[in-house]
Amino acid sequence: MTQAATTTQIFDILTQDHRDVMQRLDRILASPAADMESLRMAFAPVRAMLLAHALAEERAFYSRLKQNARTEQTALSAGGEHEIMTRLIEDLSGYGLNRDEFLSLLRGLADLTREHIETEEGPIFAEARQVFDRAMLDEMARSMIIEKSRMLQAVA
Amino acid sequence: MSFNPLAEKGIPLERQLRNWSELNVQPYDKDDVHPFTRTRIITMNGIEVEAAIFSHNFARHTRNLDLKRALARTRAIEQQQQKAVNWLIPGDESTLEVTIGYEQVAVELTAWVAQMEPNLYAKRCYDFGLLEDFDHLYRYANLLDMTNPKKAEQVVGQLTEIMPGRPTKRHHRDPVDMIRRSLDAYVGDPLSALHALTITAAEQQTMNFYMTIGNRYQEPVARGLYAEIASVEEEHVTHYESLLDASLSWTEMLVQHEYNECYLYYSFMQQEQDPRIKRIWELHLNMEIEHLRLACELMKAYDNRDPEMILPKSLPAPVRFESNKQYVRSVLASTVDLLPNELEFVPMSELPKDHRFYKFQEKVNDSVAIPSEQVIQDTIKAKGREYRFQSDGRHPVPALEEAQA
């Protein structure tokens, strides 16, 4: 774990997570299961990945950005987007949802996640590269690996 | 000037242990105590009970002996603090009078928190629970009126109105609808987490109290009322605890608990008028500052994380017990007909007729006397009218105005 963290910067870990999540979301939306039970089952692992990623990212990455005056506002804004995404994920656990409502919410979640990723991998990563040195980025990477593992248990 | 408990020096843990005489404190005079001194005592008892129970649960989830020992050392002091606080309640204050005090806590503390809460969703959750505890106060006040010459308005010092809220018979609902959205400790204002911890602990102690002493009565209506309201308090614990961020690690949660205790003791020390009890709040604050420091050390050691990431930069504005009559009236007027539907609240008229709420209601309420209704009917029968204390005019909800004989 330590070896991986020291050779892989935080940006690579986050980007890889983004790819994995979007790929799974797009796959469900491209050929959605016919019934709600199968849809929910297909979404369950994506739900865990997305929540664990967002919670771990807040702890390992954005908490550091919040402590720096140059990146504080960026971190607060990204936190707001995470809150909306979490809310959508919770709504997807709704009891009374029918298939159409579920898919509509899922499309909304996919769109929001895609936009969030674009902002994060673009201007936010650029800002973070300017503000933090290599040692701090490595520390974030180590923390992200540990936190994601912990969060996967917390959201299971 | 702002107060930062992380920057203060507390009493070293080895100097915090008290002897039996120090723990067996002189109780307050029930005829002389300020109602908000009583509510502060009830609140801090609930906070200390939560501190001990949380610490025990933490210890049951780790095999690390160093951690277990560190938790046990602090917990030995926390449990003493609980005795020192709870033993302030005198033996000649009846269980029902204390119950009225518990409900005054639930009304005024929740009303304060709701008005200070920065997260709008959490605010809605507090407003929702507020109207239910407000109704419990009215039901217990009628039980007191029927069984005791003392009026509930004397216990609450006329600082809290006593009239129907959201009727208790409607509080019984499918547990699915008592789960709320979770706060995120790393994203939101840290004050939200402190509020959720405080209200969860207060409701949990209310649940514990009623479920323990509710069988100490002989009158069937009293036994029934405690059983019914104790069940609602269990729902309330579910409602409020689901706001807490369960993705935090155990040490992060420990730090939050200790910080919240500092916050509350500091707040109550500021407001307390009784000098003897003020000294207890001050002593406990100085103990808690050390507990917080030790918890932060554990978080740094075991989580490799800076506690300041989940804490405010300094203590938020102190929590105050004060009369919130107009606020309660405004919440009553605007939200009395709300019911929970999964994670949100909707007017009762918008719930579909086949909603699980009605099935649950049918199961527990139909074909039996509902104790919370029976106690009002019995009071009318015994006294000619129900008991209310409305200092600020007519009930804001016309349907809940007192029926004229």
State the separation between the terminal residues of chain A, measured CA to CA.
Answer: 22 Å
CATH C-level category of chain A:
Mainly Alpha
- CATH superfamily placement of chain A: nmb1532 protein domain like
The proportion of residues forming helix of chain A, as a percent range, comes to: over 70%
Give the fraction of residues assigned to helices of chain B. Answer: 55-70%
Q: How are the strands of the largest sheet of chain B arranged? A: 1-2
Report the average pLDDT across residues of chain A.
90
Low-confidence stretches of chain A: 1-7
Count of DSSP strands of chain A: 0
Q: Encode the helix/strand succession of chain B as letters.
A: HHHHHHHHHHHEEHH
Count all strands of chain B and give the number: 2
Q: What is the subunit organization of this protein? A: heterodimer
Biggest sheet character of chain B: 2 strands, antiparallel
Structural class of chain A: mainly alpha
What is the chain-wise order of helices and strands of chain A?
HHHHHH
Residue windows where pLDDT falls under 50 for at least 5 positions of chain B: none
Radius of gyration of chain A: 16 Å
The class by helix and strand makeup of chain B works out as mainly alpha
Q: Count of helical segments of chain B?
A: 13
Q: Span between N and C termini of chain B?
A: 57 Å
Indicate the CATH architecture of chain A: Up-down Bundle
